TrEMBL record:
SUPFAM superfamilies: NAD(P)-binding Rossmann-fold domains
Lineage: Eukaryota, Fungi, Dikarya, Basidiomycota, Agaricomycotina
Pfam families: adh_short
Name of the protein: NAD-P-binding protein
Keywords carried by this UniProt record: NADP, Oxidoreductase
InterPro entries per UniProt: NAD(P)-bd_dom_sf, Sc_DH/Rdtase_CS, SDR_fam
Domain of life per record: Eukaryota
Family designation: Belongs to the short-chain dehydrogenases/reductases (SDR) family.
Length: 270
């Protein structure tokens, strides 16, 4: 018998952005295991197909009868036209989305202010902030109409405390935190829930992208400590979604045990 009740996930329909890898993929798979239907969105179609297969396997292994419908949608959240036409690409039987997981986001480069390429900061804001806002607005109208729904945004420790070499990424995640907090206050007179998940160090493709494909540089970020995994964060996301309707986990701040802030970590424990 399970200690915690996850039956509230049964038959729910979840849309996850950035679902082709890392936290997004792990989240989609865990929702599938919990008996939900999942719409997987990302730019990389081939990678999405593999995650959808993993979702199918996870659902089958769970033995649950509810859920089990999975759809993949090629989506760049920074593309306004793609966002506007999103429901044209979603199968009709999955249009009634219950949970939105805004996971798409990235960091590119470690340059300091004055040396940051405009294309880099424009791309980060386009995806991490403007894309998240556009997707949220699209779904919030539907959530208000049906008088239910849950928006789960992926923030970061970088949205709580800035650090050297991360001015743009930190700015985007501070924006996500402010947007999410404002949204929660704006829907306080509705049953709609709003959650922000704020991870610390998570070992995924994230740092490889930050260091422009230099895996050795990315590996050094986690050297000497046990970082979080994508699955760790997926558990927090699914846990938040599975709470009773009257319970809203407004912020979930998650760190590895040996990290205390962006710049404070103990690296002698591994």
């Amino acid at each position: 018998m399970s200690v915690f009740n996850a039956s509230r996930l049964l038959g729910k329909t979840v849309l996850v952005t950035g679902a082709s890898a890392g936290i997004g993929a792990a989240t989609a798979i865990l929702f599938a295991k919990g008996g939900s239907n999942v719409i997987l969105c990302a730019r990389r179609v081939d990678a999405l197909a593999k995650v959808a297969e993993a979702c199918t396997s996870a659902h089958k292994e769970s033995g649950l009868q509810q859920g089990g419908k999975f759809a993949t949608v090629q989506l760049d959240v920074a593309d306004k036209a793609q966002v506007a036409s999103l429901f044209d690409k979603i199968p009709q039987d999955l249009h009634d989305v219950d949970i939105l997981v805004n996971n798409a986001g990235f960091v590119y480069g470690t340059e300091r202010v004055g040396d940051i390429a405009p294309s880099d900061y424009e791309a980060m804001f386009a995806t991490n902030v403007f894309g998240l806002i556009a997707i949220t607005q699209l779904f919030l109208k539907r959530f208000k109409a049906k008088k239910s729904g849950h928006v789960i945004n992926l923030g970061s420790v970088a949205g709580r405390e800035a650090y050297v070499g991360g001015s743009i990424y930190c700015a985007t995640k501070h924006a996500v935190r402010a947007f999410t907090n404002s949204l929660m206050k704006e829907v306080v007179d509705t049953p709609i829930r709003v959650t922000e998940i704020q991870p610390g160090m998570v070992e995924t493709e994230f740092s490889i992208v930050r260091f422009r494909g230099d895996k050795s540089a990315a590996d050094k970020v986690y050297e000497g400590l046990h970082p979080l995994t994508a699955e760790d964060i997926a558990e927090e996301i699914v846990w938040a979604a599975a709470r009773p309707p009257h319970v809203n986990l407004a912020e979930v701040f998650v760190l590895p045990v040996n990290q205390a802030s962006p710049n404070i970590a103990y690296r002698g424990g591994k």
